[in-house]
Amino acid sequence: MRSVGDESARPAVLVWAAVAVTALLAVVAFQVSSLNGLATLMLASAALLLTAIAVGVRRHRPEFARGWWLIFVSVGLALAGNVIVATLLPPEVATGGVAINVIYGITYPILCAGVALLPNHGRRGAAALGMTESAIIASGAAVIWWMVFVDPSLIDTGLIHSQAYLLVEPFLDLVLLTFGVRLLLLSDSRSVSYWLVAASCAVRLTADTAYLTVGSSAGFPTEVSIVGWVVCNGLLTAAALHPSMKRTVALPADQATLSRHGATRIYVGTVVATPVLTGLFLLREALQDTLGSLDVVVPMVATALTSALVVQRMRQLNRIAAARAADLERALHNEADLRQELRFRSEHDVLTGLPGRTVLHDRLAAAIEGGRPGALLLLDLDGFKDVNDRFGHAVGDDLLVEVSARLRLLFGGALVARLHSDEFAALLTDAPLTDAWATTERVLTAMRRPLTVQGHELFATVSMGLRELEPGRPAEDLARDAYLALHAAKEAGRNQFVLYDEQLREKRLETARTVERLREALTREEFVVFYQPLIRLADEQITGVEALIRWQPSGESMVPPDKFIGISEDSGLIVPIGAWVLRESCRVVAGWHRRHGTVVSVNVSPRQLREPGFGLMVLDALETSGLPPEALILEITEGVLVDSGIATEQAISHLTMLRTHGVRVAVDDFGTGYSSLAYLRDLPIDHVKIDRSFMPVPGPPDPAARTLVKAIIDLAAGLRLGTIAEGVETAEQVELLRELGCQRAQGFYFSRPVPEADAARLIDRERLTSG
Length: 771
Prior knowledge:
The protein contains 28 helices and 15 strands. It is an alpha/beta fold. Residues 511-767 form the EAL domain.
């Protein structure tokens, strides 16, 4: 789409054609010497203008074309009047000038209305835009016009009494010029069409003034007047055909001001020059002894009118300034309110209304700097994720609101903040550690009471970390220490609090160092897999092995699994480590399986089962190693299957898919985690591993241990699940398990976990012995 500027830079061919025809008519105007010739010339000029308006409106389709149609009507009436004067009226009447003035006196109001409506475009109040400024300029021009043209031609010559009618058209031209100047003030000089219309108004005034001063005395218009009338119509013709005639002026009502610095200078110059020139004119008339009443009245009235218009404009500007000042004041007030609202939102939690991390940090820093005693307490809701998973986030949000309200009451006037999700903080100031300790215990007890949320009775116990304020320590360090205490409380079993001490920091640093070393161990291949035989109790033959990871740092003693497995789980490194153990175990056992039918049992952590690609990773390890799926047992903990939420559903989906391929699943440490056994029937399980804690200890017979082991074995048999006993260390335990019907066992009685080479020798030697 072309812009208005493009249209102005490249006028349509029709515009140039109109210019050419107008130039031709202007040349012919120099040859006109009769009334009929003048009538014919103006007929052609007016017909050209009427055609141009009709074509321009249809071609460019301005949104509001009524201004152009009013100009069309005005020109049409003038054309009809000229024809009537030239053809129907007697020559002495037609050449007298009165008839022409009457005709144009009728058409001028319509023409002025049309020019006035060109920039209006239907907006309420738009007709008054720029009128004061343009009236000031036109009034000043009228004073100069009167002094330069009217006074010498009519006043000083005494013809004013007989030829006053000659002032009608020039006076109306001044009114028309007012609207023409207004076009320039509103158009911001971007509309070529508006410039052409304004120029036609100025040319019309020039032509009629020439007729007033010269043509009337000659009895026939001079060439200046005739050419001026033709050029006037020609400018309107070009304006109607130019594409910018459809431009819409969109200045708001409070911006009715001059649109260019040049126009502003004209405006100011007019205001200054008018009284000066009036004074000079009156002085000249007085010196020439030609000063009359009209010489004084007309310029003074026009000058007074100009001054009145200036005063009116100043009042308008004052109103505009007052309105803008009020708008600015409202905007500043709204901005202040908005800034305050944004600051509140940035410093407070939207859901609970509690202060956020920034406020807590500032208050904590101020308390430390002031040397005030107290403590920082961090709280984390236990099991909040389960609430979201079970009841939805709407219930979870309402639970947070209820928890916030309870914490406010429990901590009284202390600062309570929400840091993140289900994480809160409280800053206890001006209180010794003993009082902070007592407050913490009171909060811990109170939070064990249920909360009613949307008809559900929910429990929102908390884990808490307590850190005493210490002068001279940065707020960041104290917050970090409180987090260490909070994590210690969660690791200790939740629903409790831990007071920070230096050992927690040392433990944290040691954990961080261990995590870094574990990353390096992966790249340095410091992990090895040991294998502990799985024994069939019926004949005490090795049927499989359990793969157990070991960490052998270069040049150091072996690191026990309990020193790094939990850290690997928390850090997420268990995912790549577990994947490596699975691939390595499948690779090693594949050869044993081909020779002896050995199966392998591999532990899988809950964190691994949360990985979207876990199932595909297992199948890829089997395919790469050549180990049949039936020879792989994945050992999981009970919590993986009985926890709720998306993670558990994903774990069950992985295990179900793998079992369809032949992979078997065993529940490790069975009986130690949950009292509900319904999952044994409904979930994807093939074996249960009886935890070593159920094994009878050496010494006198233990009927209770025997009963527990028998109950587990009978339950598994009833559900057609295999049983594997862990931690078997004595012959009595072996005999008991065999008697009770346990299928397989493993433990130090048979063999400790051994490296790959030793495990291979055990399997080969047994096969040779049995063979």
